[in-house]
Amino acid sequence: MASGRMRKHGFTLKESSSLPTSKFHLVPHTCKVLSSRLSDGSVISPTTMPMKRIVAPSKAERASVHGWLEAMKNLSPPRMRCMQNDSFEDKTDCDLMDVKYRAWMSEHPSALDNFNAIIEVSAGKRIAIFLDYDGTLSPIVEDPECAFMSDDMRTAVKDVANLFPTAIITGRSREKVYDFVQLSELYYAGSHGMDIMGPAQGCHGFKAQGTKALDEKGNEMVLFQPASKFTQVINDVFKLLEEVTKNVPGAKIEHNKFCISIHFRCVKEENWLALAEQVQHVLDAYPNLRLTQGRKILEIRPSISWNKGKALDYLLKALGLGSRNDIFPIYIGDDRTDEDAFKLLTRRKTGLGILVSKTIKDTNALYSLREPSEVLEFLMHLVKWRRRRLNRLM
Ligand SMILES: [Mg+2]
User: For the chain, which residues make up each domain, given as ranges?
Assistant: First the structure.
């Protein structure tokens, strides 16, 4: 058989020697998966899950698998090349990129260079800090299980949390990100904000509203899980995805409680289409789930009207800060999913978003930082500024 794949009569035919083997090797693009047999012999049937679509799919959700990949590639820009060893043509390209980057930076200037301006605009208001995790507090790494934050970053986040209401809002599972961060002073919103937990009695006397729960140490917590009824369907889809992608070299499927991440970071680009098609074939049978794209990642989540912006809004209300106009939320994040939080702050006309990026991106954030090391510097500046101010007041 010729290498690569052929499209014929609405079918995708993949070469078995170079692509992963699965029952989906020859399938119509429009087919629905009615049931799937797992390796342990059990059968999963989506028809046994009487879940109805809650929100109509967006244009992006209806886009083809090629659209997903294109969006994912656009969010995963190549590293900027080193100017010194490039050819003349490459240098011209780099010059052009540099000009464009500087123009973008004038619209989204450095939050470090403009630290004093940020403090000035927040004058008279109480700052609250909201942080993404991957790519913001930790570097993006090949193995998502190894996205550790540095001890310096942990100290900075702990100091920030002792001075300002602070929460982490991440696509990871809440438990996973807590394992990475290991700070009990914070609120954690996992699964893109679909799994929120924090101390019932927050810092500075803030009392969060919500369902009371106890953590494993018996501390009183507040728990909010708007997608709790999707637990079973997410578990089922995770098992299916594990099965159909197990032979894709480098593919990693991560269970994030109320969403699932499919990591492409260690998959050769020539296998991206095959992997995305496997995901599509599974997802086709679950209209109550939707797919979003990030940096070398596809994510499956419940089709409910909930995102990091809604989670930020909930947290502000839970902390008793939502209706106060003397609160100044600062949200720092690096990914497309963080844009919902940036948009919320723009709508609120108070607070600001900071995008972490070394490259040009469409964003609703006002300011930018290049990488987690600059986030660390920014957080340390905040701590020093607040401590100086408190010392002056004493
Ligand atoms: Mg991130």
Answer: 5-77+229-302, 108-226+306-393
Between the CA of 314 and the centroid of ligand 1 the distance, in Å, is 20
pLDDT value at position 204?
52
Mean pLDDT, the chain, rounded, equals 79
Question: How far apart are the CA of 71 and the centre of ligand 1, in A?
Answer: 16
- Antiparallel, parallel or unpaired: β 26-28 and 126-131: unpaired
Task: Report pLDDT for 198.
Answer: 75
The structure tokens 């990591």 sit at 263
Distance CA 138, CA 148 (A): 6
Residues 355-377 have pLDDT tens digits of: 999 999 999 999 999 999 999 99
In CATH terms, the fold of domain 5-77+229-302 is Alpha-Beta Plaits (3.30.70)
Say what the pLDDT of residue 1 is. 36
Instruction: Return the SS3 of 375.
Output: helix
- Angle of the 231-245 helix axis to the 272-283 helix axis, nearest 10: 140
Cα within 13 Å of Cα(361), Cβ side: 31
332 CA from centroid of ligand 1 (Å): 9
What gap in Å lies between CA 377 and CA 259, rounded to an integer?
31
The CATH number of 108-226+306-393, from 3.40.50.620, 3.40.50.1000, 3.20.20.10, 2.102.10.10, is 3.40.50.1000
CB 299 within 8 A of CB 171: yes
Tell me, in angstroms, the distance from the centre of ligand 1 to residue 43's CA.
35
Instruction: Please state, in angstroms and rounded to a whole number, the distance separating the CA atoms of residues 296 and 78.
Output: 11
Give the distance (Å) from ligand 1 centre to CA of residue 49.
Answer: 32
- pLDDT, one tens digit per residue, over 110-134 is 999 999 999 999 999 999 999 999 9
